[in-house]
Task: inverse folding
């Protein structure tokens, strides 16, 4: 019996099969109820005890070998199925669609780059703010309409917690924690309780700039803004400053840039030849003192612009809502710009 088992082991070792039915046939032939191995075990029972030890070892070895063969052949078959997809390596590759930056991100980055050239650093602050940083420190009198429920999303009263309506709040935080010279811009999302229309939205993005040092003058402000306008809108761009009012700047101004229609008049500039771009002014001495900066030693200028508006002027976008709808037909138009 020992020799017979050794013979079978030799044969089984050579077994290989590459289809399901052959493997199954092999399994039944050896391991099935009436298969070779159960039959051998029956015979084994009747062996004289002296032979049992060696034959028993061999028999178990055979049984294990058959089981391993079955398992391995099944695995090989499964692997073959998994990797045998019909491959035609000569086919052209499928097109990879590359996403693009959102126009707001692109414009924000361009503006940041321009001010970085002038040495402005970037500062950020929280979107959920307190009354002090959004209004009080910025010289807003208690009865100022901007504090009104119509403009501001209040989260809680007493303490007054609200969604910031401008990123001037970040400038307050910077002035409170650093001493001049300060030269920083604060990009960020702001919120105002406005009716959503083609021209206004309750969420938009701003970049505000602040420069505080000894002897900072209105001429510095004008130079800085002119540099920005020429870099962003083109070398031939002209700027003009009109008097305006903000509680935190004195004097305050609004800057227009010349329209690309070159004074011929177009829909974009409403036939005026000028486009309103940003608000600016000299930091009110009260604001400096509130932020623990000595106004008799330091002066500063500040400006703030809406990124949506700047992007709208550059790309002639006629509806501010498009920025927030994420319609690929809109976004696709900016692929490859930067
Ligand atoms: N914070 C102003 C706004 O949101 C913009 C501004 C900033 C104006 C700095 C002047 C100086 O409209």
Result:
């Amino acid at each position: 019996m020992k020799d017979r088992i050794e013979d079978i082991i030799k044969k089984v070792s050579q077994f290989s099969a590459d289809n399901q039915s052959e493997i199954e046939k092999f399994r039944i032939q050896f391991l099935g109820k009436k298969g070779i191995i159960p039959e051998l075990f029956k015979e084994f029972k009747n062996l004289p005890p002296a032979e049992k030890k060696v034959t028993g070892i061999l028999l178990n070895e055979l049984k294990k070998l058959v089981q391993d063969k079955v398992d391995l052949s099944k695995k090989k078959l499964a692997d073959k199925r998994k990797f045998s997809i019909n491959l035609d390596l000569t086919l052209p590759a499928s097109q990879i669609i590359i996403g693009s930056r959102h126009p707001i991100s692109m414009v924000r980055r361009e503006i940041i780059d321009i001010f970085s050239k002038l040495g402005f650093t970037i500062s950020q602050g929280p979107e959920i703010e307190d009354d002090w940083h959004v209004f009080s420190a910025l010289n807003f009198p208690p009865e100022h309409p901007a504090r009104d429920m119509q403009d501001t999303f209040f989260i809680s009263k007493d303490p007054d917690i609200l969604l910031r309506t401008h990123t001037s709040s970040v400038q307050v935080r910077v002035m409170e924690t650093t001493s001049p010279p300060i030269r920083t811009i604060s990009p960020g999302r702001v919120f105002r309780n406005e009716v959503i229309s083609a021209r206004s939205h309750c969420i938009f993005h701003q970049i505000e700039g602040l420069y505080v040092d000894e002897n900072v003058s209105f001429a510095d402000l004008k130079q800085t803004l002119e540099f920005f306008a020429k870099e962003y809108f083109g070398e031939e761009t002209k700027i003009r400053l009109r008097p305006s009012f903000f509680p935190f700047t004195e004097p305050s101004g609004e800057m227009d840039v010349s329209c690309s229609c070159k004074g011929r008049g177009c829909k974009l500039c409403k036939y005026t030849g000028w486009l309103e771009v940003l608000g600016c002014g000299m930091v009110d001495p009260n604001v400096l003192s509130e932020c623990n900066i000595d106004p008799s030693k330091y002066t500063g200028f500040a400006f703030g612009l809406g990124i949506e508006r700047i992007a709208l002027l550059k790309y002639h976008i006629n509806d501010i809502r498009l920025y927030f709808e994420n319609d690929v037909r809109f976004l696709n138009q900016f692929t490859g710009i930067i």
